[in-house]
Amino acid sequence: MYLSNYFSKTRGGGNAIQMNDIASIAKKKHRLFLSKTASVAAMMLLLGFVFALFLTALLFLLRLYLVVISGSNQPPGARGHVAVLVVAGSGGHTTEIMRLMESLPAAYTPRHYVIADTDRMSEEKIVTFESSKPQSHSDLQFTISRIPRSREVHQSWSSSVVSTLTALSYSLPLVFRLRPDMVLCNGPGTCVPLCVAGLLLGILGMKKVQIVYVESICRVQTLSLTGRILYPVSDYFFVQWSSLRDKYPKAVFLGRIV
Amino acid sequence: ILKARGYGRLVLQVGRGTLVPDADSCADLSVEAFRFKDSIAEDMRRADLVISHAGAGSCLEALSAGKPLLVVVNDKLMDNHQLELARQLHMDHHLLYCTCSTLTETLKNMDLSVLQPFPPGQPKNFANFLDKALGVK
Question: Glycosyl transferase family 28 C-terminal domain: from which residue to which, for each copy (chain B) (predicted)?
Answer without folding.
Answer: 10-120
